[in-house]
Amino acid sequence: MTTVVTHTGLLSLRSLRTLSRQPAYLMFTLVQPMVWLLLFGQLFRRIAEMPAFGGGSYLSYLTPGVVVMTAMMTAGWSGTSIVQDMERGVMDRTLTSPVRRGALVNASLVHQAIVTVVQSLIMVGVGLLAGARYDGGPRGMLVLVLAAILIGVVFAAFSDAVALLVHQQEALIAVAQFLVLPLTFLSSVMIAPSLMPGWVADVARYNPVDWAAVAAREALTDTPDWGLVGGRIGLLLALAAVMAWLSARAYRVYQRSI
Question: How many whole angstroms separate alpha carbon 63 and alpha carbon 2?
């Protein structure tokens, strides 16, 4: 166990060192979410005036959803570093070293979690400067960041598993692009469930992006329904564990193929 933790720490530091040399990458990942938050927040602000919306500011409603969406979108690219390691021979050398296989999975997910925390805090700060307000205070913010981390871990593990199975950047990017928009629009990221078509609201109940958005948004209200928050966070934890297991299995499949 100690060895896995040590190896996870070393591999996570390697990933973070690489990221620190490319800070522009982190900033570019925030450009599109900023457009969604600042442009869509203004374009659709009058949606909040509709009786079925339930009151409040649309920007306050939208910000947690955009934070969750940003975590999902960034995590979808996680597998690209694995494909690059394959192409450069780094992966083969790593697999022939004493590095524990569990540490390879853990390090990727820890790296994604740290990136998600940084992105989430920036997006929340921008939302506050733009006029969003949250009655849930620091406790609600912690739940928001936790929900973003969990959805990021889910999609990072999925992306890693796909990368290990397809071995191609193009295929991995196609899969990520195929999932992002449908999962976003089949959730309450942009619009309240009460304003959705019935079938979309039904599908959203099984969408992990919606679980994260609902948990984050509910925790930021002045009187959160903690049962609802706990239920959605529990579902995300279970799904993250399943995806991490699948990612570990994909490493074994790749190792047997070389």
Answer: 39
